[in-house]
Write a structure and sequence with these properties.
Length: 214
């Protein structure tokens, strides 16, 4: 593929992603902010090792029963560092929590009958992009991604139980050098915006400090 063809493909993808972001933000009326994490929907954002997962777990600890949706890739012998991260998260969870390890986060959220903690949307999005053929930019990948993210946005907005979602904040860094990095950043930014639009509270974790976003 020539550089000009790659440029046109990238521009087309960017336009489609912006349209998808607008569609996600427009699903239903925005949730009225109450700045109260009890009984509603809370989005917890933060960078790597910011303390976002620990904070979300503290919030969820207020409930007597919790459904923990582990949305990332399962541990693998091929990636010992990731396996160690998964093991650390498992060890922190209270034994009475119900853990659901799945890539079908939308179904798990809809089926939950106790307060939900989703950790995290960034690792889930990696699975979605991988399964949709985004990295190779296979035909139809954008539509497949749009459909899955749209379904999740609807499930989040309609959630009948208290819900906490953890996600990565990736919009403050440099522009990724690779096309795959830019796709991930742009799609996650759109997803975070859609989830925040339909959340009762949004928290940003920076160096272990909790910031309340209006």
């Amino acid at each position: 593929m020539t550089n000009d063809a790659k440029r046109r493909l990238a521009e087309s993808a960017a336009r489609r992603l912006e349209a998808a972001a607008s569609a996600l933000r427009g699903r239903g009326q925005p949730t009225k902010r109450v700045n109260d994490v009890d009984g509603g929907k809370t989005l917890v954002l933060g960078g790597v090792r910011s303390g976002k997962s620990r904070y979300a777990e503290e919030l969820a600890g207020r409930y007597p029963a919790v459904t923990y949706i582990a949305a990332g890739m399962p541990p693998s012998d091929d990636d010992p560092e990731w396996s160690a991260r998964v093991a650390a998260h498992r060890a922190r969870r209270p034994s009475h929590w119900t853990t659901v390890e799945t890539g079908d986060v939308t179904a798990a959220l809809r089926d939950a009958d106790s307060p939900v903690l989703i950790d995290c949307l960034g690792t889930w999005l990696t699975r979605v992009l991988d399964e949709s053929g985004a990295w190779e930019q296979r035909d139809g990948w954008q539509q497949r991604v749009d459909e899955r993210l749209g379904a999740f946005a609807d499930a989040w907005r309609q959630a009948a139980v208290p819900a906490i979602a953890v996600s990565n904040e990736v919009g403050s860094g440099v522009v990724p050098a690779s096309a795959s990095g830019r796709i991930f950043r742009d799609v996650l930014g759109a997803l975070n915006t859609a989830v925040a639009t339909h959340s009762d509270a949004v928290r940003l974790i920076v160096a272990g400090r909790v910031l309340t976003l209006e």
